[in-house]
Write a structure and sequence with these properties.
41% of the residues lie in helices and 15% in strands. By secondary structure, the protein is α/β, with parallel strands linked by helices. Helix 2 (32-45) packs parallel to helix 8 (234-265), helix 3 (56-66) crosses helix 4 (83-91) and helix 3 (56-66) packs across helix 7. It is globular and about 70 Å long. The structure holds pyridoxal-5'-phosphate.
């Protein structure tokens, strides 16, 4: 699904030098590399504060803690997402309120959000799934109307530009009260281990986030609240500084691969290629197709597997059907699109190093199966 080895080969001298530089400096935690990465990331995203942390799941958890969400508060979230988004809501004893997604973008439906709001609702967590922005105009409007926090899960869409109805643009993750991202190796901006970051334009919130991520500490050995310990290693920061410079080129490579797939499948009615929202760029964390009824998805994945083509299903079980949420009453909302999608989607290899030869082999193989 990803080819991190070929990607590394192309930037090897710079990466090796950066890693050795940190080792020789012996500033492994909170060293100058972390500070520099933080500033470069702020510039790239056009946001006031970037607070690096240990991973994307921590970024979500710390954000919810820093916003002061309390047990029992309701948090509206898509069910069709990676489990981390909803898991931290459960971990903090908040109540996840799952809503359906849009059938074209697969992103959270603003109409469904509006229907799910109660007096206990405190926040919305839009997830920019597969690399395309949610309808942030609509979501910010709903949030403003009902005084709700917006916590963007930007783990799959770093570098994505969103165009507002008024013509202005912003990077995803910088639009809501706070944005969370992950530097897991296979993410669009991945390090060589675990990493994550939180963004905000709010100075007070940034201080609160820093405090929560650092044992609730206001000054050394003075702990004002129960926080956690979540840091980005200096070695990972040094790697990320190099890869951040490549990010726009990586996004272009992903878009080129997506365009190849689109062309190859244009005349196959059994396949629906990813929808492109007019308001959002697509940074193609995943290239996810919908398969028409009547074609067996498991057989297709197995067929491709035999030809050494890894196809994946993101995600086979939506959050509202996971055992971890069995105790919650989540049967009230209409989840028909989510339920349908989880049975029909599949994702093809998507990364920065796909060659035309590989793309040709993959698309021919998919077509072969469908025409059988
Ligand atoms: C990867 C991912 C996360 C979690 O990131 P980690 O760094 O693995 O903790 C959260 N949300 C979404 C949508 C993701 O894809």
């Amino acid at each position: 699904m990803v080819d991190l080895k070929s990607q590394y080969e192309k930037i090897k001298p710079a990466i090796d030098k950066a890693i050795i530089g940190v080792v020789e400096s012996s500033q492994y935690i909170n060293g100058p590399e972390v500070k520099s990465f933080q500033q470069e990331m702020e510039n790239y995203l056009g946001v006031k504060h970037v607070i690096p942390c240990a991973n994307g799941t921590d970024a979500l958890q710390i954000s919810m803690m820093a916003l002061g969400l309390k047990p029992g508060d309701e948090v509206i979230t898509p069910s069709y997402t990676y489990i981390a988004t909803t898991e931290v809501i459960g971990l903090l004893r908040l109540k996840p309120v799952f809503v359906d997604c849009e059938s074209d973008t697969f992103n959270i439906s603003p109409e469904a959000i509006e229907k799910a709001i109660t007096p206990k609702t405190k926040a919305i967590v839009p997830v920019h799934l597969y690399g395309q922005s949610c309808d942030m105009d609509a979501i910010m409007k709903i949030a403003k109307k009902h005084s709700l926090f917006v916590i963007e899960d930007n783990a799959q869409a770093i570098g994505c530009d969103y165009s507002f109805a008024d013509g202005t643009t912003a990077k995803t993750g910088t639009i809501g009260d706070v944005g969370c991202t992950s530097f897991f190796p296979s993410k669009n901006l991945g390090c060589y281990g675990d990493g994550g970051a939180i963004c905000t334009n709010n100075d007070d919130l940034a201080n609160q986030i820093r405090m929560v991520a650092n044992h609730g500490q206001s000054k050394r050995y003075y702990h004002d609240l129960v926080g956690c310990n979540s840091r980005l290693d200096s070695i990972q920061a040094a790697i990320l500084r190099i890869k951040l410079r490549e990010l726009d080129r990586y996004i272009e490579n992903r878009n080129n691969a997506a365009a190849f797939y689109d062309d190859a499948f244009a005349d196959i009615p059994e396949l629906t290629v990813p929808y492109r929202s007019a308001q959002s760029k697509h940074v193609f964390h995943q290239y996810t197709l919908q398969l028409a009824d009547g074609i067996n998805r498991d057989d297709l994945v197995e067929y491709l597997g035999k030809k050494d083509i890894p196809a994946m299903i993101y995600y086979p079980v939506p959050a509202h059907k996971q055992k971890m949420f069995d105790h919650l009453d989540v049967t009230c909302a209409d989840m028909s699109i989510t339920d349908w999608l989880t049975t029909r989607v599949f994702s093809l290899p998507m990364h920065t190093e796909l060659t035309n030869q590989q793309l040709k082999y993959i698309t021919e193989s998919v077509k072969e199966f469908i025409r059988k």
